[in-house]
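Design review, sub-item: ligand-bound model
Attendees: FS, YL, KQ
YL presented the inputs for the flavin-adenine dinucleotide complex:
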Amino acid sequence: MKHSPLPEKLINQLSSIPDLQLFDLPIEIKRFSRDFFDYSPVLQQKLAGCCADVVVRPGSLVAVISVVEIAKRHLIPLTLRGAGTGNYGQSVPLEGGIVMLMDAFKDIRSFDPFTGQVTVESGCLLGDLDKYLALQGRQLRLLPSTWRSASIGGFIAGGSGGIGSVRWGFLRDPGHLLGLEIITLEEKPQKLQLDSKSAEAINHAYGTNGIITALTLSTAPAVAWQEVVIDCEDWSTALKLLLSCSQAAISLHLCSLLENKIVDSIPTWSGASTGKHRLLILVAPDGLSTLERIATQADATFKYLGAEENRKTGGLRELSWNHTTLHMRALDSGWTYLQMLLPQPERQATEVLKERWGDDLLWHLEAVRQNGTQRLAALPVVRWRGADLLEELMTQCRDIGAVMFNPHAITVEDGGLGVVDSDQVEAKRLFDPSGILNPGKLKGWL
Ligand SMILES: Cc1cc2nc3c(=O)[nH]c(=O)nc-3n(C[C@H](O)[C@H](O)[C@H](O)COP(=O)(O)OP(=O)(O)OC[C@H]3O[C@@H](n4cnc5c(N)ncnc54)[C@H](O)[C@@H]3O)c2cc1C
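KQ shared the predicted structure:
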């Protein structure tokens, strides 16, 4: 529900806060009220008209608190924005109000060479953080394929996993997020330090229950990732290869499988299409010979593309995860997508769905670790034929045992989480008792 437009008087109050940039031109407001929700025709329709009344960019924590005080006093919706690359309208202000840009908070505060733990401000771009970590001999464990442009705060609040998930699982698995600094929206806003246990409730809550200003994360030792492509004629062999590569005793950062019709349509950074299905792999140098052996045994074509760091153009990372959807949509915006964890045996599931949907569903699989076990996630690109058919497809996926992470939903629970997390709701009750943070996104609160 849209609240009534902000009166001039309140805009003036905001504009008098020191260290705060205010954007009130309609074109700027519109730009900062959108993310990449247009991958979903369902969300396009639902979110097209959502727009902030005003956008602010605080340059200090004092300015954040001053904005919070005004928003609280007048019950103005307050929606946070990192880089705005979310896919489900996470940073779209459903009820208008203030959008607050967090990109001025980008310092790396500390690094512990013994544990590899890093404490960083929420607006720091993942690419910048990873560059800094490389100088310390470390790297991020998990990155979205938007790793160049997205912020670490937005990734924790709105993302789930991506490059690295083949080894490290997902962001909400214990051990990744070790602590948070947040600003609360209590009667008297406070800056709080949360330990890893209390931070869990803020992780993947779409910024509905606290303003993250800094985070402490685990990192991994740096590896000089090598790019490998394996081409394979037959789908069932390609699937077997994906499983055997991801289960081998080698270090992987990425292990994706694209159906041949996708390979035909995306940029040629992995080499020209051979008309075959293609595995895209980032592997540690000592795993190259094992991958070659696995590919040769399966009669597939192994191709070593070289060290990832020598890449001049886009690399395999930017053909994977939701970048696959991006490239398909760049060619034809009639494509949308789904996200799910495939049931086992995966081959049967992919074949049953293919039989029903034909080339309206093109397979894109990602090897991931789920609760400590190697599994396959799928982000198939799907031809948009209307909401009813999409619903039918999702029902069929659930019926065959897939766990859906619906990318056509607005709330935390209907999207990635699946269920109401009472700790998230309790954290909102404590830290945002008036419910003004990103209203409409936490179903458990509604
Ligand atoms: C082509 C493409 C590929 C993608 N690939 C992946 C992928 O591989 N894996 C993945 O997980 N995601 C992926 N995404 C989604 C998105 O890019 C990532 O989740 C990204 O990390 C979001 O970061 P952001 O800075 O853009 O966050 P935003 O979109 O700005 O915000 C995301 C959410 O976080 C909240 N938020 C932002 N900053 C704060 C803060 N300081 N405190 C509290 N809440 C805050 C916002 O309110 C919003 O709810 C992809 C998107 C696209 C378009």
